[in-house]
């Protein structure tokens, strides 16, 4: 028995050895070296274009298949399920009072509240922001499958091949790259940390950070288009962006150098954080310090006051939103009084949805999903810097910046708080509605007492 | 990630709901997707908490009454059939439907059924009468703390006086219908569902 297997054994070893060497060389040449130098072969773009053609073919196939089988093809409606009345509640009620006669409580007033309530049950502005965006056509991933896969055998076969490629080839490749990138970051920032403070250190730190983030970008097969790079954030300012996933950080930091803000973590994250801070100043808060708003504000202001330090990167929404809208910006970063550099990030969901539903999936699960998607495709727009104007308070300034980001990225601009992902809405909003209605009732009884 | 909702809804179910409610096939699948996204527990039924998670509904002064309308007497869960049956009340009345007969009896979105839905919002104890107490409670929900008890009381008294024809100091469904005779109920209690 043993002699039988022996020749095969060494053959297998040899093959494995060769494939590892070849694989590693290819990796080095095509991925790591360009990452270090900051150039690109354009392989990823080619990949993206072929995927688009594939998806188009798949869509046509599905539509044809559905027609043949006389089934209804599920089509998500991007315009919504219902058409809502544009008028506000107050306006609607005023309309009713038009009819001359004595304005007073009318039993039909209830209809307005009722209709609005049921409209919000069918389609509301907030809850749909915390689930991944629905796609117009299938992109051959099970996770966005609305029962498409049984329409044609060819399509199912294609999906099967897709699974093999994604999990068998792309995933291991990406995980290797990710570990390489993170490992290099930790090791190299620690080395740079040994240098004395000065221009040399800053230069090296920038280079090290950029290189490692670029490797991570390749680890995710992220294809990013940067627009308006002349508006890139400068030292002494704060960069604000809409938040969809932790990958946002990697995307922005691979094109420029930022000082990060965050809570101190334990474990692997903690190791990375400590290494990073050796090379250049980042702002890490202890858990207890996070609650103290004055302390937070002071540390941020001190950092921006120092011109030699990098611009701070902040996500004012405070939580991940699904990239169809921008939700309320927390005013903390807008109170500091320095220049704000807004950045809009918009992902293309066809290749892989980057949204992290942190209440449903943990970080590891999320990263696994990311690394087994086709690719992450996104656009980044650097908007011109903004400062607080005379007579504008922090909240108004925050809303102004938010509107600019929403406009540029083609996202809906919402006043709702991203904290509604987990928490309940504040009672005060209901009280406002009640007050509005009371004014209509009481106002009318005032008229009556006058007549 | 992503919704696999429509694969859990069978064609026979869709046909039955279509007959009962009058919604089109695509509207039903779309609403099923919505139902599924509200169903955080993923058990095929919605609880009151699932509705209260919708911020726009939570700030509606009559939010709790509207949520209640979805749940049959004494039950805490509403399945998709029940959900659709309640939503069907808000389907607009189309002219060509007056000739079609979908089910024997009154279609769910007729004027009478829309009025009945609104009546039940007032009728807290489901005894088919709106008493002064019930009217006061609903009024209090709508105005919050901004109007005094006396003022609210006089508004309630006046409303009952005008509507009550048989002198029992309560508003029955017929009296309710009479008061709202001239109101365009079909338009006010309809939601424009897209096809």
SSE succession of chain A: HHEHHHHEEHEHEHHEEEHEHEH
Largest sheet of chain B: 2 strands, antiparallel
What's the rounded overall pLDDT mean of chain B? 85
Strand content of chain A: 5-15%
Which class do the helix and strand fractions of chain A yield? alpha/beta
Report the helical percentage of chain A: 40-55%
Poorly predicted runs of chain A are 444-451
Distance between the termini of chain B: 26 Å
The overall pLDDT average of chain A reads 82
Q: Specify the biggest β-sheet of chain A.
A: 7 strands, mixed
Write the SSE topology.
The complex is a heterodimer of chains A (451) and B (195).
Chain A: H1 2-37, H2 43-69, E1 82-83, H3 89-97, H4 109-122, H5 153-193, H6 199-219, E2 222-227, E3 238-241, H7 247-253, E4 259-263, H8 267-279, E5 283-285, H9 287-290, H10 293-305, E6 312-314, E7 325-326, E8 340-348, H11 363-371, E9 376-382, H12 394-409, E10 412-413, H13 427-450
Parallel strand pairs in A: 2-9, 3-6, 3-8, 4-5, 4-6, 7-10
Antiparallel strand pairs in A: 8-9
Helix pairs in contact in A: 1-6, 3-4, 5-6, 5-8
Chain B: H1 11-21, H2 25-38, E1 45-46, H3 48-52, H4 55-58, H5 63-70, E2 78-79, H6 80-88, H7 111-122, E3 129-130, H8 132-143, H9 149-163, E4 171-172, H10 173-179, H11 185-188, E5 192-193
Antiparallel strand pairs in B: 1-2, 3-4
Helix pairs in contact in B: 5-7, 8-9
What does this structure look like?
Chain A: This is Phospholipid/glycerol acyltransferase domain-containing protein. Chain A: The chain crosses the membrane at residues 20-43, 151-169, 175-195, 366-383. Chain A: InterPro entries: LPCAT1-like, Plipid/glycerol_acylTrfase. The complex is a heterodimer of chains A (451) and B (195). Helix content of chain A is 52%, strand content 10%. Chain A has 451 residues and is α/β, with parallel strands linked by helices. Chain A is flat. In chain B, α5 (63-70) packs across α7 (111-122) and α8 crosses α9 (149-163). Chain B is globular, with a radius of gyration of 19 Å. Chain B starts with 10 loop residues before the first helix and ends with a strand. The chains are: A alpha/beta (451), B mainly alpha (195). Chains A and B meet through β1, α4 and α13 of A and α2, α4, α7, α8 and α9 of B. β1 of chain A pairs antiparallel with β5 (192-193) of chain B.
């Amino acid at each position: 028995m043993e002699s039988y297997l022996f020749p095969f054994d060494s053959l297998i070893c040899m093959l494995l050895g060769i494939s590892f060497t070849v694989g590693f060389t290819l990796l080095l040449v095509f991925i790591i070296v360009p990452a270090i130098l900051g150039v690109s072969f354009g392989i990823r773009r080619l990949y993206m274009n072929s995927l688009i053609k594939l998806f188009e073919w798949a869509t046509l196939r599905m539509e044809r298949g559905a027609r043949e089988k006389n089934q209804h093809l599920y089509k998500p409606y991007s315009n919504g399920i219902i058409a809502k009345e544009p008028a506000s509640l107050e306006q609607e009620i005023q309309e009713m009072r038009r009819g001359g006669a004595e304005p007073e409580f009318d039993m039909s007033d209830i209809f307005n509240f009722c209709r609005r309530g049921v409209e919000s049950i069918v389609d509301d502005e907030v809850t749909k922001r915390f689930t991944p965006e629905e796609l117009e056509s299938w992109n051959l991933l099970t996770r966005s499958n609305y029962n498409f896969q049984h329409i044609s055998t060819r399509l199912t076969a294609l999906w099967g091949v897709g699974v093999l490629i994604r999990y068998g080839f792309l995933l291991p490749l990406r995980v290797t790259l990710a570990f390489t990138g993170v490992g290099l970051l930790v090791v190299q920032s620690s080395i740079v940390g040994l240098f004395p403070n000065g221009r040399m250190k800053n230069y090296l730190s920038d280079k090290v950070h950029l290189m490692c983030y670029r490797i991570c970008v390749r680890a995710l097969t992220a294809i990013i288009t940067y627009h308006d790079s002349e508006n890139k954030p400068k030292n002494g300012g704060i960069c604000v962006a809409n938040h969809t996933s932790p990958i946002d950080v990697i995307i922005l930091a691979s094109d420029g150098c930022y000082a990060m803000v965050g809570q101190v973590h334990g474990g692997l994250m903690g190791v990375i954080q400590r290494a990073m801070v050796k090379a250049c100043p980042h702002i890490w808060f202890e858990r207890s310090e996070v609650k103290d708003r004055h302390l937070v504000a002071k540390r941020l202001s001190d950092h921006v006051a120092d011109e030699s330090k990098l611009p701070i990167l902040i996500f004012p929404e405070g939580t991940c939103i699904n990239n169809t809208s921008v939700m309320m910006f927390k005013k903390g970063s807008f109170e500091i009084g320095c220049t704000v550099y807004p950045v809009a990030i918009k992902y293309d969901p066809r290749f892989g949805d980057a949204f992290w539903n942190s209440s449903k999936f943990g970080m590891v699960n999320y990263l696994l999903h990311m690394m087994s998607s086709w690719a992450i495709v996104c656009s980044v727009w650097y908007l011109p810097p903004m400062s607080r104007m005379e007579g504008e308070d922090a909240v108004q300034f925050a809303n102004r910046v938010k509107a600019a980001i929403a406009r540029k990225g083609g996202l809906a601009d919402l006043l709702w708080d991203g904290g509604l992902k987990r928490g309940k809405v504040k009672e005060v909003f209901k009280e406002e509605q009640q007050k509005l209605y009371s004014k209509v009732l009481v106002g009318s009884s005032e008229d009556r007492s006058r007549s | 990630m992503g919704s696999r909702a429509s694969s859990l809804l069978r064609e026979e179910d869709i046909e039955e709901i279509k007959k009962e409610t009058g919604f089109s096939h695509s509207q039903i699948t779309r609403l099923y997707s919505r139902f599924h996204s509200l169903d955080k527990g993923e058990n095929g039924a919605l609880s009151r908490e699932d509705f209260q998670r919708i911020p726009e509904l939570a700030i509606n002064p009559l939010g709790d009454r509207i949520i209640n309308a979805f749940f049959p007497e004494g039950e805490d869960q509403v399945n998709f059939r029940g959900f659709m049956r309640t939503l069907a009340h808000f389907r607009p009345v189309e002219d060509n439907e007056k000739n079609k007969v979908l089910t024997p009896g009154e279609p769910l979105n007729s004027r009478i059924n829309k009025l009945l839905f609104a009546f039940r919002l007032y009728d807290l104890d489901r005894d088919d009468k709106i008493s002064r107490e019930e009217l006061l409670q609903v009024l209090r929900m709508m105005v919050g703390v901004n109007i005094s008890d006396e003022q609210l009381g006089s508004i309630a008294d006046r409303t009952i006086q005008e509507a009550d024809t048989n002198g029992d100091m309560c508003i029955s469904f017929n009296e309710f219908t009479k008061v709202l005779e001239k109101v365009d109920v079909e338009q006010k209690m309809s939601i424009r569902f897209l096809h």
